[in-house]
Specification:
Layout lengths: L12 H14 L17 E6 L5 H12 L3 E5 L12 H10 L4 E6 L4 H8 L3 E7 L5 H15 L6 E5 L6 H12 L3 E5 L15 E2 L3 H7 L2 E4 L15 H8 L3 H6 L4 E3 L22 H20 L1
Parallel strand pairs: 1-2, 1-3, 3-4, 5-6, 5-8, 6-7, 8-9
Helix pairs in contact: 1-5, 1-10, 2-10, 5-6, 5-10
The structure holds N-carbamoyl-L-aspartate.
The site of N-carbamoyl-L-aspartate (NCD) has 11 residues, from α2 and α6.
Length: about 300
């Protein structure tokens, strides 16, 4: 496996399966995540998040600590970035401290790849602009695999704000490599005008998705990434694309996923979170296990 985890495209199906197999060994039958050994004892990992995060940051931290690593937090607010220090110099400084791996989330495409061209640290992508979020896609596949056994032949609809979603981009790649059929469901305004979109089936509404798919991956409407002038009529959006409690209950065999955080009352209703077909909190648990596997594979 490469030393860096920059995207999923560089992972083969065998790489993905190796990570998911290892992640499954960290999941305890009682529902939590266990740590049997501490293979990363003596290694230092820095978490550098230039965008907000709850799940990804905490689960990387928990994963690293369960494996025995020392974790340092870099926060741009209050750092020398505020004094005008360049990103390059910031990374060189972190590297010079003897850090073994940097987990990075940044809004600008390419920051992670550029860093990987020169640093001796292992670079692990925790979210990159609209482009990639490899550990999210891996944890989604891991959650599904636990629930349904194999992704082979599974029909997975990705619903909502695909245009602004790095989760969607990484997910289509991992799901396809695992043998699932991906269907895209979004209004035209929230579908990117990019060639990869044409490789996937489309479905017109959430009702179609619930009728024809085994799984729906709901996406957050990422208003903070909306271009000036992009206005969505919320009522019309909800009528065609929101997962209401009634819609979910009418199709209880369809599994419901969401990377979080959920805009409750926009793409998904609060009642859906309580249904047994909803596996959103299980995704969070898998996030820890998958990140343990990712850290172990890239650092040992
Ligand atoms: C996603 C992200 O930040 O890309 N969240 C996450 O990592 N769990 C999706 C989102 O913010 O909508």
């Amino acid at each position: 496996m490469p030393k860096h985890l920059l995207d999923t495209e560089r992972l083969t199906t065998d790489d993905i399966n190796a990570l998911l197999d290892e992640a499954s060994t960290y999941l305890s039958p009682t529902g939590g995540v266990r740590s049997l050994t501490q293979p990363l004892l003596g290694q230092t990992i820095v978490l550098a998040f230039f965008e907000p995060s709850t799940r990804t940051r905490l689960s990387f931290e928990m994963a690293a600590k369960k494996l025995g690593a020392t974790v340092l937090q870099f926060t741009p607010e209050g750092s020398s970035v505020g004094k005008g220090e360049s990103l390059h110099e910031t990374f060189r400084t972190i590297e010079a401290m003897g850090v073994d791996a940097i987990v990075i989330r940044h809004a600008v495409d390419g920051v992670h790849r550029e860093l990987a061209t020169w640093t001796r640290m292992s670079v692990l992508n925790a979210g990159e602009g609209r482009t990639a979020h490899p550990t999210q896609a891996l944890l989604d596949a891991s959650t599904l695999r636990e629930r349904v056994g194999s992704l082979e032949g599974l029909r997975v609809a990705i619903v909502g704000d695909i245009a602004h979603s790095r989760v969607a981009r990484s997910n289509v790649d991992v799901l396809t490599k695992c043998g699932a059929t991906v269907v895209l469901c979004a209004p035209d305004a929230l579908l990117p005008a990019e060639p990869w979109v044409d490789r996937y089936e489309r479905c017109a509404t959430i009702d179609d998705a619930m009728r024809t798919a085994n799984v729906v991956c709901m996406l957050r409407m990422q208003r903070e990434r909306f271009e000036a002038g992009l206005a969505i009529d919320l009522e019309a959006y909800r009528a065609s694309y929101a997962l209401t409690t009634a819609r979910a209950m009418a199709t209880p065999n369809v599994l419901v996923m969401h990377p979080g955080p959920v805009n409750v009352g926009v793409e998904l209703d609060a009642g859906v979170l309580e249904l047994s077909q909803t596996i959103i909190h299980r995704q969070v648990t898998h996030g820890v296990a998958v990140r343990m596997a990712v850290l172990r594979h890239h650092l040992v």
